[in-house]
Specification:
heterodimer, A: alpha+beta, 7-stranded mixed sheet, 23 helices, B: two-stranded antiparallel ribbon, two-stranded antiparallel sheet
Chain lengths: 668, 565
């Protein structure tokens, strides 16, 4: 959707939100609205509460109106950003029909909405999966791009981590028999639509607490203004009602009050933009508080695949020999590890002349869990194998003295050793290395600076785990971890009063995801994991948890910064309005008019206009969030206090003066 | 400035030592004097059937309220029938109903706003049994609730401490011994301590004059120690019998600064010892809060001092030479000791005066007024710290949001409910001051008490309610305040200002006590840094100034602008 269209739609939506019943939800803006109505009445009957200028009242009324409208506009803009996404999702939903399998085995066409939990459906190539479910029969590729945006199809089959399917995705080949697991209107897709639309957007605890503060400030300032009137009357100073309303609106925190809901919506939207679906705003906020991150090694810290990085021959064998045999053994190996061995050997200049001939004539011995090795039998009778140390030494006639040492060496630096055998002779070791993802070490250092501890979970032995942990720069690790170990770690950290976040995908992870304060499930994972988590990453990229933490922090920071800004603004507004109000009765008050504003009228209008205009000017900050750099709390506080506290005090002095200079020729 | 510096230098070590002692009393540490104190305390516990069991926050505040209510009832009836009781050598009459109401609320709430004159309104028995008695108990009440509050911020449970035990211990171990010491020092300086009737003299002009006497020293000592402030005589500590010399003036100032400051020290120690910093004197957290209070205090002090030093331009215009504005001040104290006394009595919310605040220059008068409007610059015993803690929590709330964390203090989350109570407890103060001031200027009964025209009249009204709401008790004495209107309204303001705030604040502490403690790291807000001190001061001044500036603009600021043109 282009920007112009978005602004136009938001403008219209902002007008619809002028409904008093809607405004009532935002107490700060509701006070402005009541002020507006009073001043409108005063514009029509200027002499209702003593003498007052109709023109002045009309100006105040129009500024109050745009103040409210700007606030609505900010909210509408924030809402508008998610709307396009919802449109696409809704289309997917409405057109879906399903083939239900009845108890007697016959098929029946029904609308997707009619499906109940427990129903069996069959989905054939080209059809859309009607609702969330588990595969009970069949194997098929599924296009999940409607939800993830990822166009490569995914294989789905019965049992295992790839058995869950999401409503709205499309089967692209073969067929699947699916048992529906969610009630109509409660599927993942429905939840997503609701979340993005903001219909189920509930105020988060911090937002409620902040709202309480804003309401209290509003009450205090209402009290200030209401009591000012009799006190001024006592001193025979007459104050116009429009001026008092202008003072009230300037003092109550309209800036943050007007932007609060936009900040919340935009924060959720930033999470969605990252292709992460947060089940509630509360989860996003909680992720800002995370103290400990529990991360799986494989796929999160390291690339899922190990890469061959060296050939280590035993004594009496040349490196060339070992390399050639390693290359031979992997020629037919389609696994990433096998391919990396080929790549490495070819980089090191292996002789590739007979490649095609060998491939055509050789017998491939595939890897099985029982044998734990693979290889080829060449036509001329040569047998080449590679496999785990334990499996290989059983088959060899003789174990070289230094083999065990080489194997240990590789393990101790976090690598996986693959032993290569020609015939029955052990030649040496291929060093397969876990590659730590680029930039992660720096990321973890940043997290540490922010006070967040990282713990790595891995099935590796302690030696390997320690090596990887050191390389990645995590703060702690659990080696040989089982799913229940994760829960134990989470509970131990929580007992220390820490907020724990973790990522997971398997059914095994579900209890840990539920136990963690923030659980991020991978979309590729099981439904159990997704249900236990409070966030789902559609791209299935576990490192994203770090970004989510940052977004959570940014959300709170934006609220805090704009609240500070809003309160700090009041100082300048006081210096504009108080002298202006009292100058007629007490000419000496001009001493306090430090901005040298032109006249009492121009001063009040300028302050009020500044108060209105600052709302749209801050919309970009509300949408993007205040800039966040990982640093410790003290530096962050100093920085934000300087920008939004001190800045909030100084900027309105400048702004009000400029507006005064601009409007003076217009009103005099 | 020499005298001011000297007093503040003496204050610092004294308050740290007293704070350490107060901590020992509050935490029931073993001490040498246990042998003397324990038997007395145990006799009291047995006599009053006190179980010494730990109380929940709710039980604690209920015990406090009931105890205070009983004392109010007894005190009220004593005042109403004092004429017929003993120790009335000067034949003083019973006190009128609304005045008795005002007086009793005033003393029970640690305010000591006096709409009567001691020498003509109270018998010696009333002075001792009502006034001095309540000076001890109201101070002990403030201390007790503050300790209950502070302990709950640290504790992992809401069931901690016993009101009666805290109350008895502080009187026996702190207030009585200190009062005795200060009393002796004042007697040494010339303050009378007697139950003999007034002396009637024949002056050199041949007319006769009553010289009012009484158990003055014993009242003076606890009046300051307990941040009470109600004088034995109408003119309070400006009279030579209450405050004879410069030395007695310094003793009285130090006495009223002692315990409010010590309460901050106790809190600092509680926090520091939580982290096993056993040898701390004040602790980092305590230092932050103490520093914030000190900054506000010193700023106020300097303004009063220079404003008074500058004098009144209108007197200059008359061609009269003046050394500062000496109207309403005692020559034996001068500008310096008067300015300091004024700042101390309003910052530490005592309300005793050694000069007439009504006669201060407009800006000089604005400072005591603003101190009471803030009500957090050390404040009265215990309650001042609790008021400041509300601003601390507020500052933490905003600061935590600014660093992107859910607000927490000492590991405990500040959520909606705490926020609501905090906001209410901060709200009560301006509602009472501004609301009642507006009410007073709208009613003829209210305006009837005002003795000055224009802006100064409004200052008088604001001052009276600010003094009542802050439980300070000093007055812009020009106000003719012994009328039904003023007695009743200020009585209500004092009552709500004291008890509503206390209830809400202890409720917040109880809520926090029940919360799980979250871990702290470099990612959580540090509340014991200089930045936080600055931010705290800014929040206090900003909220305070934003709330009261319009009213102040009509009162003292207008006066100042008119005077200086």
């Amino acid at each position: 959707m282009n920007t112009q269209k978005m602004i136009r739609q938001a403008s219209i939506a902002a007008c619809k939100k002028l409904n008093p019943l809607y405004l009532m939800k935002n107490p700060v803006m509701f006070v402005v609205a009541i002020g507006f109505i009073l001043v409108v009445v005063l514009t029509m009957f200027p002499t209702m509460f003593g003498e007052s200028s109709r023109l002045f009242n009309a100006s105040v009324a129009s500024i109050l109106f745009i103040t409210i409208w700007f606030s609505n506009f900010a909210e509408s803009i924030a809402e508008g950003r998610g709307r396009a996404q919802v449109q696409t999702l809704k289309q997917t939903k409405t057109t879906t029909k399903a083939t239900r399998i009845l108890a007697d085995g016959t098929e029946q066409m029904v609308q997707a909405e009619q499906l109940q939990k427990g129903d069996l459906v069959i989905v054939r190539a080209g059809e859309t999966i009607p609702n969330d479910g588990e595969v009970v029969e069949g194997i098929a590729t599924v296009d999940e791009s409607a939800i993830t945006g990822e166009s490569a199809p995914v294989v789905k089959e019965r049992s295992g981590d790839f058995s869950s399917v999401t409503g709205g995705t499309v089967v692209t080949s073969d067929w699947l028999k699916i048992e529906i697991t969610s009630m109509p209107g409660d599927s993942f897709l429905d939840k997503m639509i609701r979340l993005i639309e903001g219909a189920s957007r509930q105020k988060t605890p911090n937002e409620i607490a902040l709202n309480t503060l804003l309401v209290s400030l509003t009450i205090i300032f209402l009290l200030v203004v209401v009591t000012l009137l009799p006190m001024a009357n006592y001193l025979n100073i007459s104050l116009s009602v429009a001026t008092l309303i202008a003072l009230t609106v300037c003092l109550i925190p309209t800036t943050i009050g007007g932007l609060l809901s936009a900040i919340g919506i935009a924060g959720m939207d930033r999470v969605t933009k990252f292709n992460v679906i947060a089940m509630s705003g509360k989860a996003v906020e909680a992720s800002g508080d995370v103290d400990t991150l529990i991360l799986d090694k494989t796929g999160t810290i390291t690339y899922g695949n190990r890469m061959a990085t060296a050939f280590l021959p035993v004594q009496g064998v040349t490196a060339q020999e070992l390399m050639e045999m390693a290359w031979l053994s992997s020629l037919a190996d389609e696994t990433p590890e096998g391919k990396s061995i080929i790549t490495l050997a070819e980089q090191q200049g292996v002789d590739q002349i007979n490649k095609h001939h060998i491939l055509q004539t050789a017998t491939v011995i595939p890897f099985t869990a029982q044998t734990r090795m693979s290889g080829v039998d060449l036509a001329e009778g040569l047998q080449v194998r590679k496999g785990s140390y334990d499996a290989m030494i059983k088959m060899a006639t003789h174990v070289p003295n230094d083999l065990e040492e080489v194997v240990k060496q590789v393990s101790s630096v976090g690598g996986t050793p693959l032993v290569v055998m020609r015939g029955r002779q052990l030649l040496g070791v291929i060093y397969l290395k876990d590659i730590v993802k680029e930039g992660l070490k720096e990321r973890f250092a940043q997290l540490r600076a922010m006070g967040i501890k990282t713990i790595m979970c891995t099935g590796d032995n302690p030696l390997t785990a320690a090596a990887i942990a050191q390389e990645a720069g995590v703060d702690g690790f659990i080696a040989e971890s089982r799913p229940e170990d994760k829960i134990a770690v989470i509970k131990a950290e929580q007992a220390l009063g820490k907020v724990v976040a973790m990522t997971g995908d398997g059914t095994n992870d579900a209890p840990a995801l539920a136990q963690a304060n923030v659980g991020l499930a991978m979309n590729s994972g099981t439904n159990a994991a997704k249900e236990a988590a409070n966030m789902v990453d559609l791209d299935s990229d576990p490192t994203k948890i770090i970004e989510v933490v940052e977004i959570g922090k940014q959300l709170l920071m934006t609220r805090g910064a704009l609240t500070t800004f809003s309160i700090a603004n009041d100082v300048a507004k006081y210096f504009a309005i108080i002298p202006a109000m009292l100058m007629v009765a007490i000419p000496q008050m001009k001493t306090l008019n430090i901005m040298h504003l032109h006249s009492p009228t121009s001063a009040i209008i300028s302050a009020l206009l500044f108060n209105a205009l600052i709302i749209p000017l801050l919309i970009p900050i509300a949408m993007k969030g205040v800039r966040y750099q990982p640093m410790n709390a003290n530096h962050l506080l100093n920085r934000n206090l300087l920008i939004y506290g001190l800045g909030g005090m100084v900027i309105p002095f400048i702004g009000i003066k400029i507006i005064d200079l601009v409007i003076t020729p217009l009103i005099s | 400035m020499l005298q001011i510096t000297l007093i503040l230098l003496v204050y610092l070590p004294v308050v740290l030592i007293t704070g350490r002692y107060l901590y020992a009393v509050a935490m029931q540490e073993k001490m040498v004097m246990d042998k003397v104190y324990q038997p007395i305390e145990h006799r009291i516990y047995r006599l009053a059937n006190i179980s010494q069991e730990a109380m929940t926050g709710k039980q604690y505040i209920i015990a406090l309220l009931i105890t205070n209510a009983c004392m109010i009832a007894i005190g009220y009836f004593t005042l109403r029938i004092q004429q017929w009781l003993f120790l009335n050598p000067n034949q003083i009459n019973n006190m009128e109903a609304t005045l008795s109401f005002n007086t009793i609320i005033s003393f029970m709430t640690n305010t000591n706003l006096q709409h009567y004159s001691g020498e003509s309104g109270l018998t010696y028995l009333s002075q001792m049994l009502v006034i001095i008695f309540m000076m001890f108990t109201s101070a002990a009440t403030g201390y007790a609730v503050c300790m209950a509050f502070c302990k709950r911020l640290i504790a992992k449970t809401d069931t901690i401490g016993n009101f009666y035990v805290d109350f008895v211990r502080v009187i026996i171990r702190v207030l009585l011994p200190l009062a005795f010491l200060v009393g002796l020092l004042l007697v040494w300086q010339g303050t009378p301590q007697t139950v003999q009737q007034n002396v009637t003299l024949t002056t050199i002009e041949g007319t006769s004059q009553d010289i009012a006497l009484g158990p003055v020293a014993s009242l003076e000592s606890i009046k300051h120690l307990g941040t009470n402030g109600g004088g034995f005589f109408g003119a309070n500590s400006s009279t030579p019998f209450e405050n004879p010399t410069v030395i007695s003036n310094m003793i009285e100032m130090l006495a009223m600064m002692l315990l409010p400051g010590a309460c901050v020290v106790v809190f600092g120690l509680l926090v520091a010892k939580r982290f096993q910093h056993q040898r701390a004197w004040l602790g980092k957290q305590g230092t932050t809060i103490f520093a914030a209070m000190s900054v506000l205090f010193l700023a106020g002090l300097l303004i009063v001092y220079f404003a008074e030093q500058q004098g009144n331009p209108m007197i200059d215009e008359l061609g009269i030479a003046q050394q500062g504005s000496m109207e309403g001040k005692e020559t034996r104290f001068g500008i310096e000791q008067s300015a300091l006394f004024t700042t101390v009595t309003t910052a530490f919310t005592t309300g005793t005066v050694n000069n007439m605040h009504d006669s201060l220059t407009p800006v000089g008068g604005l400072v005591p007024l603003f101190n009471m409007m803030l009500n957090v610059v050390f404040g009265g015993i215990g309650v001042g710290l609790m008021n400041m803690m509300m601003y601390v929590l507020l500052a933490i709330f905003i600061a935590c949001l600014m660093i992107g964390r859910t607000p927490q203090f000492l590991g405990k989350k500040i959520e909606q409910k705490e926020m609501k109570f905090m906001a209410l407890s901060i709200l009560i103060h301006p509602v009472l001051i501004l609301g009642f001031s507006a009410f007073a200027v709208m009613t003829s009964a209210g305006i009837a008490g005002v003795t000055n025209p224009g802006a100064h009249g409004l200052s008088q009204i604001l001052y009276e309610y600010a003094s009542s709401a802050a439980n300070n008790g000093s007055g812009f004495e020009g106000l003719a305040d012994n009328s039904t209107f003023w007695n009743v309204t200020t009585g209500l303001v004092m009552f709500f200002g004291r008890y509503l705030t206390m209830i809400l604040q202890l409720a917040i502490a109880s809520l926090l006590a029940n919360k799980a403690i979250n871990a702290e790291s470099v990612g959580t807000l540090q509340t014991d840094t200089p930045t936080f001190t600055i931010f705290l001061v800014a929040i206090v001044v900003l909220i305070g100034a934003l709330t009261f500036l319009p009213a102040l603009a009509l009162g003292p600021i207008t006066e100042q602008l008119l005077m200086f043109g």
